[in-house]
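User: My instructor asked us to take a sequence, write out its structure as tokens, and then describe one feature of it. I'm not sure where to start. Here is the sequence I was given:
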Amino acid sequence: MTPEIHAAIARLWDYHRMHHELVNAEVILVFGSNDLRVAGHAAELWHRGLAPRILFSGARGRMTQDWAETEAASLARVAVEAGVPVDCVLTEDRATNTGENIRFSRALLEERGLTPSTAIVVQKPYMERRTFAALGAQWPELECRMSSPGLDFAEYCTAELTPELVIAAATGDFQRILDYPALGFATAQEVPEEVMAAYRFLVSEGFDARLRQGSGPG
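Assistant: Let's start with the prediction itself. The structure tokens for your sequence are:
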């Protein structure tokens, strides 16, 4: 992988992360993921006393269809193993995309008599901004602060989450940041020209496997 590719993904990676300062909230929301490290991070935030409960949302997706449990169940198990009491954990196991994560999580909370106005939302690093934009359009009254495991691109990659796979995912999520506001799925995000240039360069280098075709709520 060339130095130019490393520089481009570093720029895109930094843009995806919101760098929010966390404050106490009413709930920690964790949307579906194939990366169980997000559950460990959510557990750390709970242990810091930043919120009284965690809600995990997610069925099975393209990268988790062979899991024995749903994403929500798998993430919840990691949090409980990390010391979060079972009665502080909620799971929603039907959502298959970010829009459903938002809608079904909100409905589950309302069923429990909970109508939070503040939340910490935990995601993978390269999905922070896209999730924040989706919440801004689909749950605008919820004041959200985003968080993710504090890993840069090189630290994030593993034997399973290869650099090629992660760059393609980060590039695809950036495309959705660009496209979804016009579809009503997300709020518009300011995009610096150097970030747009990094995205275009990565696409030109062939990291296009996760670019969307057609439209959908994602």
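For the description part of your assignment, you could build on this observation: The beta strands are 27-31, 54-57, 89-92, 118-122, 143-147. Try explaining in your own words what that tells you about the chain.
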